[in-house]
Amino acid sequence: MNDSKHPLSLGQQLMTRLDEAARCSLPGGGVTRLFCSEEHRRVLTLIGDWMRQAGLTPELDASGNLVGRNDRALAGERTLILGSHQDTVVEGGKYDGMLGVALPLQALQALKDEGIELPYGIEVVAFGDEEGTRFQSTLIGSRALAGTFDPASLEARDADGVSLGEALRDFGGDPGAISSLARAPEQVLGFCEVHIEQGPVLEHRDHAVGVVTALTGIERHRITLTGKAGHAGTTPMPGRHDALVGAAEMVMEADRVLNATQELVGVIGKLDVRPNAVNVIPAEATFTLELRSPDPRGRRVGREQLLSAFANIAEARGLVLDMQQTYSAEAVDCADWMIEALEAASEECGQPAERLFSGAGHDGLAMHDVTDIGMLFVRCRGGLSHHPDEAITAEDAEAATRVMMAFLRGFDERS
Predict the structure, then answer these.
(1) CATH number, domain at 305?
(2) Could you say which of 329, 344, 371 is where a domain stops?
(3) DSSP SS3 for 93
(4) Are residue 339 and residue 243 in the same domain, yes or no?
(5) Are residues 24 and 130 located together in one domain of the fold?
(6) CA of 205: how far to CAs of 123, 139, 200, 208, 394, in Å?
(7) Domain final residue, candidates 280, 310, 329
(8) In terms of domains, do 52 and 199 share one?
(9) Whole-angstrom distance between the N-terminal and C-terminal Cα of the chain?
(10) Residue 251 and residue 230 in contact, taking contact as beta carbons nearer than 8 Å
(11) Are 127 and 33 in contact (CB under 8 A)?
(12) pLDDT tens digits along 56-111
């Protein structure tokens, strides 16, 4: 048991906090915490306490972000923004997103305990929604800060028919005031996020941390195939217009193209069938297609190849095809000076930190529109993420916290 003679290390303290946050979840495996949910409300109570312990003043903003500011930020001085998202996928892990909220607060509290006052403004943001699990409208909070929030997304509805705008008002936000959250670029020093890698590179290199060079581009499409329902026992096989069979052929074509194309990955992650009955030929199948690549040209070529193949499959099977793009975010580069600052901080802490690319999207995709961005990756076991078995070690948590402390101490010399 811990006592005053054997205080917990920074890494152990951080792991304890992350365990506490993980209990703010719907029942079931892993962590499920959706935007503007009761679990969201509960975790913000925890995060608000962490912010106050770090010397920050917490405030829920109009878009559902919890923002903690130090005195200099409250006084209007130029500000460095840190943070990540609190929301999760369904039955996700306890570190994706939340690590980037808890770790900078742990680092700031440690600096405060050492009597170090940073000579610039600090904001730590627990972004409300990055995963898009509840409303399929991602980066809500970070787009609000960047000034690129689309008010039309307030009409998006969850599975129960509740609109994003309604949920936000019930949560204590103010949809009508979101536009006022946009940060003035001249007032922002930069945005830096800590995140688990969600890949195996750091584990293969046996490094605790890595410095990110760029964030991937992402696009999503909704594909709907309409055929003709019929009795499964009396309708002859030849001439059927089975929407699910057409969708299955498209899934296999997507897998073939994605495996054959360099620097392009993707997934068909959701499939809905109507009428979804055991003895009825499917009349309609709707599925999602997500494509990711750092190369916009490669993503465009892959998209065109797939959508052309889908059109040919639909025609051959007598199906009506409807294809709609639902989301798009171009790849963005991390700022050279931010990369170098994180490398210098890692070197100061004795941590090798090679550069690597992020294959996932993050709040930095939005924040890039208002300021320079940087990102520090932390090793995760097996590269596993969006899964209940997502894991990091206390030793790596300690190393990353120390790197963030060094980054913050030296930041004024580089900004």
Answers:
(1) 3.30.70.360
(2) 329
(3) coil
(4) no
(5) yes
(6) 32, 31, 9, 9, 18
(7) 329
(8) yes
(9) 43
(10) no
(11) no
(12) 999 999 999 999 999 999 999 999 999 999 999 999 999 999 999 999 999 999 99
Position 414 pLDDT exceeds 80: no
Residue type, 77: E
β-pair type (271-274, 188-196): unpaired
Asked if residues 213 and 331 have their Cβ atoms less than 8 Å apart, the reply is no
**Residue 374 identity:** G
Contacts of 81 (CB under 8 A, 6+ apart): 123, 124, 125, 145, 183, 188, 189, 190, 191, 192, 367, 371
The pair of three-digit structure tokens given for residue 230, joined into one six-digit string: 């019929």
CB atoms within 10 A of CB 303: 20
Contact (Cβ atoms closer than 8 angstroms) between residue 331 and residue 342: no
Residues in the chain: 415
Q: Do 154 and 48 share a domain, yes or no?
A: yes
Range of the domain at 284: 217-329
Instruction: Extract the annotated binding site for allantoate.
Output: 220, 279, 292
Instruction: Please state the residue numbers annotated as binding site.
Output: 85, 96, 131, 195, 220, 279, 292, 386
Q: Which two tokens stand for residue 293?
A: 């690549």
Query: Looking at the domain assignment, is residue 68 inside a domain?
Result: yes
Rounded distance between C-alpha atoms, residue 403 and residue 415, angstroms: 17
Q: With respect to residue 1, please indicate whether it lies within any of the assigned structural domains.
A: no
Residues making up the binding site for Zn(2+): 85, 96, 131, 195, 386
pLDDT tens digits for 137-175?
789 999 999 999 999 999 999 999 999 999 999 999 999
How many structural domains is the chain composed of? 2
Pairing type for strands 209-215 and 373-378 reads: antiparallel
Rg (the chain; Cα; Å): 23
3-state secondary structure 330-388: CCEECCHHHHHHHHHHHHHCCCCCCEEEECCCCCHHHHCCCCCEEEEEECCHHHCCCCC
Task: Specify whether 175 is located in the same domain as 316.
Answer: no
Nearest to 192 by CA among 410, 413, 404, 414: 404
